[in-house]
């Protein structure tokens, strides 16, 4: 692969059958914190996807016949190699995505490493079922086998983190893969490809095809030799993928958007709740599918909460993502920034109050970042539940705050959106916490905390937030085909 020298751009290449292959056309990729093009990404289509699927099919017989232990050792080696270059990966993720270097160092890259270690371990511990029917003289048991070539499509918000959350279980189970990262954040996937051979991943087991969703992504979804697609991204794209894959009856795992509520009762420990809810609203510029974007506060503490929350949000510093003292980096693109800003404008037009951030406070940026896609953490109050700001996923540093009176009322209001990914509940009453958690339409409920994850347990959303779950057992089940075998003596 060609690396940039002096002013030349970084040029990525597809990784197919263990080799880097140039593409006939390229797309520009921007550094969100400066607005400059800094990288060129292959604009792959059918031809490149065809070559990658063929390489993956050819590699399947050998890879799928390896023992889980052999595969596990290779995954662990890959984890070590990424960890060894953690700083380079973190720098690249921050530059490519706009996220702060602090977040990339603390969250993105360590989690990518952990994804490989976690599945390297968990693949060794699955047991299959067995039942007996003594009167029939029969024993039944199940066996699980890898499915084949898995198509993996990931978004731009947590690039390497989410891609490896799919690659690791897919190959641990013995599948081979063709992955397509977001065209806006392809660099760390390309860097990972450079480590595969050294880790002992045979050629063709992991292929990465770069390009847009419409061309490369759709070619993968429509390919007849790719029986399963694991997708993380927007609900709109998932609908298109479902449609396109229907003629092939593909197995789909869909991890989609959210409109996540935080419910704060008047007996909550505000000293914990406020900083955590500021973090759950604005971490990674609010570009995490699990970010809070509707805060329901019980009326008795509403005005105090609001005041303290805004004061805390104002402490978050926005600026150059490579500065380790910065909390909020740049949004992914100019278009996305405009979209997020427009939500704030719509809220104002509807009579809501913007308490801090966009249009209210000055945004001072260093000279080199003047053309970057920055926005201050923004808090909106007095928004109607029907407003698009309370119904649609904004996916930026914007959070809406409203008051509620009763438990019954808040459950109903929290559930009154099309999404159902994550929710947080804050209360010191354990009975209430259980009651509310059970009644929320949400794949994940965190009480008195946020984003504490045990990868063993299911992750995913209800309603328009997805189909299927990911996790130790769930990913194992998705990436394997089960068979029931009956033996009569
Ligand atoms: P997106 O749907 O625009 O794109 C996701 C991926 O799909 C990209 O790689 C894109 O190139 C590809 N794609 C686009 N159109 C395609 C098509 N027709 N066929 C095949 N592939 C196609 O999403 P995004 O804007 O990159 O990411 C943001 C979204 O992802 C948000 O809605 C966010 O909530 C969601 N998300 C969900 C989770 C989760 O785990 N539930 C995690 C992170 C992000």
Automatic annotation (TrEMBL):
Keywords: Cytoplasm, NAD, Oxidoreductase. It catalyses: 2-aminomuconate 6-semialdehyde + NAD(+) + H2O = (2Z,4E)-2-aminomuconate + NADH + 2 H(+). Pathway: Amino-acid degradation; L-kynurenine degradation. Belongs to the aldehyde dehydrogenase family. It comes from Callaeas wilsoni. This is 2-aminomuconic semialdehyde dehydrogenase. The gene is Aldh8a1. GO terms for cellular component: cytoplasm. The active site is at residue 255. Residues 25-485 form the Aldehyde dehydrogenase domain. It is an enzyme of class 1 (oxidoreductase). PROSITE patterns: ALDEHYDE_DEHYDR_CYS (PS00070), ALDEHYDE_DEHYDR_GLU (PS00687).
